[in-house]
Amino acid sequence: MTAAATTPKGERRRAELIEAAASLLAEGGFDAVRHRAVAERAGLPLASTTYYFDSLEELVTAAVEHHSNQELATGRNRLEELATRNRGVEATVDLVLDMLLGPIRPDREADAEAVLLRYERLVGTGRRPYLRPLMRTLSAQLYELLHEIFARSGTPVDSAELERLVALVDGAVVNALIEVDPEPRSAAARMLQAALA
């Protein structure tokens, strides 16, 4: 982080750039996060991206972290609702899938596209070694939250079982995407519900 980002104005502008980059990342993947696109989305001068970030890699890393932290916070809030209301298998499956696939979109095609983009991003991190340390940290936080979701739902799982369930969801989604299934989330839900039944 540059020294310019330590002032209130600098912190605010840096945050605006990170939010803009995170939204572009969610909408279009890594290729969508470019200096010009981020600056335009944030409504800031192009030079601000290089003023507040030492590199595009630093900006992408901040965007991934911001986006993931937002999703984890949403998941924690939903977990509190789950703990006080419905603890059925369907509610558990919905929350687990939201954590693994992102929040459901009302439009079927938009939801399938969002799931596809999410998996493209996840696979794409393998080609970006600078993201690996962050992804390990975020993955550990996600797995911790998933453990808590299952425990509070009355279906505690150990680490090996959780890994199996996540692999089951990933396999169902990838198969659905290969088959151009318009509802990869539904395919994953069926597999996960069957595994938890």
UniProtKB/TrEMBL annotation:
Xref: Gene3D superfamilies: Tetracycline Repressor, domain 2
PROSITE patterns: HTH_TETR_2
A molecular-function term among this protein's GO annotations: transcription cis-regulatory region binding
DNA-binding region range list: 34-53
Coiled coil, from the record: none
Keywords: DNA-binding
Family annotation (Pfam families): TetR_C_31 (PF17940), TetR_N (PF00440)
HTH tetR-type domain segment(s): 11-71
Alphabetical list of PANTHER family matching this protein: HTH-TYPE TRANSCRIPTIONAL REGULATOR RUTR, TRANSCRIPTIONAL REGULATORY PROTEIN (PROBABLY DEOR-FAMILY)-RELATED
Protein name per Swiss-Prot or TrEMBL: TetR family transcriptional regulator
Organism: Amycolatopsis regifaucium
